[in-house]
Design a protein that fits this description.
By secondary structure, the chain is mainly beta. It has one helix and eleven strands; from the N terminus they run E-E-E-E-E-E-E-H-E-E-E-E. The protein has a single domain, classed as Elongation Factor Tu (Ef-tu), domain 3 (Beta Barrel), CATH 2.40.30. The chain has one helix at 65-76, and strands at residues 8-9, 14-15, 22-27, 31-36, 39-44, 52-57, 63-64, 82-85, 91-103, 109-124, 127-128. Strands 1, 2, 3, 6, 7, 8, 9, 10 and 11 form a nine-stranded antiparallel beta sheet that branches. A two-stranded antiparallel sheet has the order 4-5. It is elongated and about 65 Å long.
Length: 132
């Protein structure tokens, strides 16, 4: 199948067959709130790129066998981080924390769930990222 996705993973990038239907970004601020007798104390350490987790799910957008095999090979490498580029203008280095391909009723096509932990962020929404 000819890939139509704008999501790429790896240095000799694996192009996803299709874009994920679900693409969630979790970026919790490093902070804590402490309730005290005198009120509330807030410690705010801001946003750090390494706190970003990306969750991609196909939900009907399939990956073909070749793409699944290529991503599985990347996932199997111990301690490796990979270049990641997407249609949202994200350019990052990521560690694959989860990749679960599930066969579909169409032989050779898979649905998937994937989680990526950002290790370094170069661009966010197409703009150079200069934070931590």
């Amino acid at each position: 199948m000819t890939p139509i996705s704008s999501v790429f993973l790896g240095s000799a990038p694996v192009q996803f067959t299709t874009d994920p239907k679900t693409y969630d970004t979790s970026w919790a601020k490093r902070s804590s709130v402490h309730r005290t007798i005198g009120g509330v104390t807030i410690q705010d350490f801001g946003l750090k790129a390494k706190d970003i987790t990306l969750r991609l799910e196909s939900q009907g957008q399939f990956l073909d066998q070749e793409t699944v095999d290529a991503i599985q090979a990347l996932y199997a490498v111990r301690g490796a981080a990979y270049a990641f580029v997407d249609y949202r203008g994200t350019e990052a280095t990521v560690f694959i924390t989860l990749f679960e391909p599930e066969p579909t009723f169409i032989p050779g096509f898979f649905e998937y769930t994937m989680e990526l932990q950002v290790v370094a962020l170069t661009k966010l929404r197409g703009i150079a990222y200069t934070g931590d």
